[in-house]
Every structure is written in C-alpha cells, then in structure tokens.
Please model this.
Amino acid sequence: MKNNTGTTSTNDDGNYQESSDSIEQAKEEDEETKKKEKEEAQIKAEEREKQKKETEAILEHYTIIDSKTNNPVTPKLEELESASKIHLIAGSFSRLVNAEQEQQRLIKLGFNNAKVLPLNNKMYRVSIDVFEKVEQAVKDFDRIKAVDASLDVWLLIDK
Model:
C-alpha cells in the first residue's frame, strides 16, 4: 500500500515503493550535484587559463629554440605543447671538452641531471634537465637562478 506522507512504503507484495516526494528530492539532489560539477569544471578551466597566461609571461623572458631547425620558437603554449622533450640549456660549446667541463660544474652545483647533448649544428649543448611539459620546465627556472644567478638558461624543444 502507498501512504501519502511522502515516505517509502511497501505494497501488497512486500516490495518497497517510493513516493513522488522522494523521487522529486532525488531529482533535486541530482540537479544540485550536476550544478556543483559544472561550477568545479568552470573553476578548473579558469585556473588552467590563468596558469597558461602565467607560464607564457615567464616564457617571454627566455629564448626557446626548436632542436630540429635551430630557429627561435614563439613562447605560446599551443606551439610548445607538441614538444616531446624540453631541455633547459645552460650553454652551447663548439668543443666537447668545454661542454663536459660545464656539465661537471653544474653537477657540483647540484644539478645531477646535467648532461651533454649530442653534437647539433656544430655545437654541444649542456642540458641542466629535461622535461615532458613546458610548465614543468618553467617551474624549474626559479630554482636554477637561486642556485646560480649567472646561468643564462634557455629552452630547447624536441618536437
């Protein structure tokens, strides 16, 4: 039997039966959940856009070079998101011995991932570190400058 109080009751077969009030309440809760999810998604989108603008503002102060063409790249995230690797470069040297000395100096400063990249366009580049995302590389700029303010770091991207 169905009672009219807006609660769940049992019918003649002993099965539970929901009243229209509880169904309406469930619909309202579902709508509220959807509204909260939409608001959270909007906030996350706004945060991503803010982070993107902050990253691009930082990138404007650094040189970015495409490893294949050796040409400068515009510091726009849309263009950099296709990069497979992003190296933070501390220097380029025409002689391997000089590049290896810079690598050892960087390791002594605590940059344990420093390495000499293979010869490219008659230059050996010394990478402080390598990242998969440009945002990760940008976050490391401050740490690098704190360790050695004389480092003139730039980005080398592999697409």
The chain is about 45% helix and 20% strand.
